[in-house]
Amino acid sequence: MPAPTPPAYAPPPAPVFDPAYQRRLGEVARRERDRAGAKLWRADIVGIADFGRPSSLPRLHFVNMESGSVRSFLVAHGRGSDPEHDGWLKYFSNASGSEATSRGSYLTCEWYTGKYGTSIRLEGMDRDNSNALDRAIVMHPAPYVDQAMAAQWGKIGRSEGCFAMAPGDFNEALWHLSGGRLLYADRISLV
User: How far apart are alpha carbons 163 and 129 in whole angstroms?
Assistant: First the structure.
């Protein structure tokens, strides 16, 4: 007898990318860019991972600081941040072995080839993510970040604390976010 087919999960409708949310992303991007100051090599684009949204929705935003435009993508959070695997980040941690996502500002560094192919090293710039290099917290592509998976299950897979993106979207990070730019992670919204 074949295994039963799981019921299709209808994710909540994606909120309209309203002007108030876009303004909020711009405010956070400016605040964190200014706070990072001379540590940044490039300040034209700021990445914001809004872990106040479920993993089924685009929550990694690339904010263009010149035009104000925003591009958004799916991004995974760590297993230790969502032990029930319900698609919502519940805990941040900077501890080694936690497999959790850390909050705070990161400097995007060089590309390297790792377990998931070309990846971007991240240097934590805050006390809450100061162990990023030691924990090997990076940006990388991963097959468990997939829009079809989000549509079917209402969530995507989890990382070991890394910022994992869909393989088809990851070139956007390579070209537009790497090379000394800022990636900021926290809960920005509640949906």
Answer: 13
Number of domains observed in the structure of the chain: 1
For residue 177, the tally of other CB atoms under 10 A from its CB is 21
127: amino acid identity, one letter:
R
In terms of residue numbers, what domain contains 124? 19-186
Residue 91 lies in a domain: yes
Supply the pLDDT for residue 190. 52
Residue bearing tokens 């990318």: 17
pLDDT, tens digit (0-9, with 9 covering 90-100), for 97-126? 999 999 999 999 999 999 999 999 999 999
pLDDT of residue 13: 43
Which residue type is seen at 24?
R
Residue 4 lies in a domain: no
Q: Report the alpha-carbon distance of residue 3 to residue 119 in Å, rounded.
A: 37
State the chain's maximal CA–CA distance in angstroms.
Answer: 63
The DSSP string of 168-183 is TTHHHHHHHTTTT-EE
